[in-house]
Amino acid sequence: MNGSNVIPIALVGTEKLRRLFDLDEELQSRFSIALSLKSMSCATPAEKEYFENYVQIYTTSMPVRSVDLTSHDRIYRVELATGGNLRRLSSLAQQVLMDVEDEKKQITLNDYADAYELIRERPIFNQRGDVVNPFTVDLGVVKRLLGYA
Q1: d(Cα 129, Cα 11) in Å, to the nearest integer?
Q2: Is 98 in the same domain as 129?
Q3: What is the C-alpha end-to-end distance of the chain, expressed in Å?
Q4: Domain count, the chain
Q5: What are phi and psi of 15, to 5 degrees?
Q6: Which of 22, 32, 50, 66 is deepest in the core (most CB within 10 A)?
Q7: 2: domain range?
Q8: Number of C-beta neighbours around residue 79 at 10 A
Q9: Inter-axis angle of helices 75-82 and 86-99, to 10 degrees?
């Protein structure tokens, strides 16, 4: 501190957090800069590569081996399941790890599918109106639901 009673505070979040500033002028006046995190996606090759690298590092740091969520275009499944939101990715990984019974076993795509069913915030529907699980539905459906196909 430089002798003043000012404590620097950083707020970093999604666009939802930014809307708080629109609602309260006093709050808005207390922050000079508002940064927001953009959800990760596969919208461009560069964004897809960045998302894949992040997920790869995240899953390889887990205490139990995991199926590679970036190979065979599985990253699209992760995007649909999490909306590219890192908090949701963390929740998914935590749920998978809580459900692991044998730490020597590799976590499978089915394990992620089961964990997704427990943590999903709202259902995802296909064109017929059926609820789908991003980890079990056909990859073409996943890409269509994301708007990539």
Answers
A1: 38
A2: yes
A3: 53
A4: 2
A5: -60, -25
A6: 66
A7: 1-37
A8: 27
A9: 100
